[in-house]
Amino acid sequence: MRTLALIVATSLVSGCSPKVRDFPGDHDVGSGGSGAGGSSGATTSSSDTASSSDATSSGASSSSGGGTDSCVDPAEDCPPAQGACMEAVCSEGECAERPRPARTPCGADGSAQCDGTGDCVTCAGGMACECGEPGCPNTCGSMDVMVMPPSCAGGGPGAGDSCGPGDASCCGNRMVPCGTFLRGYDGTPSTDDSFPAAISDFRLDKYEITVGRFRAFVDAGQGVQESPPAIGAGRHPHVNGSGWVAGWNTRLAPNTAALKAALQCNGDRLWTWTDAPGANEELPINCITWFEAFAFCAWDGGRLPSEAEWNYAAAGGDEHRPYPWGSEIDGDRASYSCTGDGSAAGACALSDILPVGSKPRGDGRWGHSDLAGNLWEWTMDWWRDAPPTPCIDCVHRVDGDRDATRVTRGGSYRAPAADVRAGNRDFSYPIDRVNNIGARCAR
Ligand SMILES: [Ca+2]
Ligand SMILES: [Ca+2]
């Protein structure tokens, strides 16, 4: 209902001071395989913060000045917002202001960042980080601010408070605190420690994109050539030039009717989309191209996660978990090998694609569901056999190579256990529509 509401958590994300990129030489100690019991203070802190955010989604009003001017389009009808980190909005038909999202670039040269409360700060000016030092993430300790994404503005099945245990918001998102880790490494069997990465804190959606949320996007006329994303939309905040480019427009379906038809992909009856709202609203949307996943996340106020970010969230960061929850997999943790519906392995059916959040025992270190299995998830990166190194908030992107393969992560309801491991990688062509690939957004 109050789509512009902001929920400002009371505490800063803490425990993040990776001044020096420090990867222990002995990875058998304190790294791989200890996920289930190895929670640290920082883990507890961020989980608590995230829970309280989700539980209070009717939070504070965003209205903070701007008078009582009536408006439809804030750019046309409202006075400019006061300050680089505030923006004018129409709230229930009246002009108001709200803080720009945390980490929005600001300042004369764009090198400072909004802190989520309306102030433009440099790292030295208030954010608890060690920005700019060699090997470190760009930002740490950002304010834990949750913005309710537009895809859940209308509520309803799959796009409101109907996902996971306890009917949580299908648009819930969780802070992933900054840190360093080894991409692909999990102690056993993946012992290659040659791909370190530093990851700034970011928010990652708790769930894969649901059919209900994708319906809001389709109903808004988005994701098609008639209404492509703005140039530069959906960029990674730390990677210049990582947003939408005009040359991708022609890779979208011409119009909404064509998009709806295409979502019934492969003729195999394993698509989750329905033209009218039905029983599938809480299922993850499949049969979406990389371009549609990118466009959805951009429209939804976010972006695709980088491959490194996705890996970091699934591995529990420097805990290097083999699976998001720990070291062993079973049917209570994930939908994989076509056993999600309780059948024998290999008996694959639409019923193996589960409503998002159906396996809460498989949630990751920071509360994200279905990182292992259900659907593969598109990431922002172009495929490369060896991940790019060095990697400080890196995205591997090849401009001018529009149709080259992109990275997918996490395995799917069809994949064997080995493929749903946190460190596993795969790729697909960005125009591919298949019944085992979906996506989730970062913010
Ligand atoms: Ca089955
Ligand atoms: Ca998944």
Structure summary:
By secondary structure, this protein is an alpha+beta fold. The protein has a single domain (1-56, 128-443), classed as Alpha-Beta Complex (paralog of FGE (formylglycine-generating enzyme)). Helices cover 12% and strands 16% of the residues.
Overall description:
It is a single chain. This protein has 443 residues and is α+β, with helices and mostly antiparallel strands. The chain has a single domain (1-56, 128-443), classed as paralog of FGE (formylglycine-generating enzyme), CATH 3.90.1580.10. The protein is built from 6 helices and 17 strands. A 4-stranded mixed β-sheet has the order 16-15-14-17. The protein has a 3-stranded antiparallel β-sheet with strand order 4-5-6, with no helix packed on it. Strand 8 (161-163) and strand 9 form a beta hairpin. The radius of gyration is 21 Å and the shape is globular. It starts with 5 loop residues before the first strand and ends in a 5-residue tail after the last strand. Residues 208, 370-371, 373-375, 377, 410 line the site of one calcium ion.
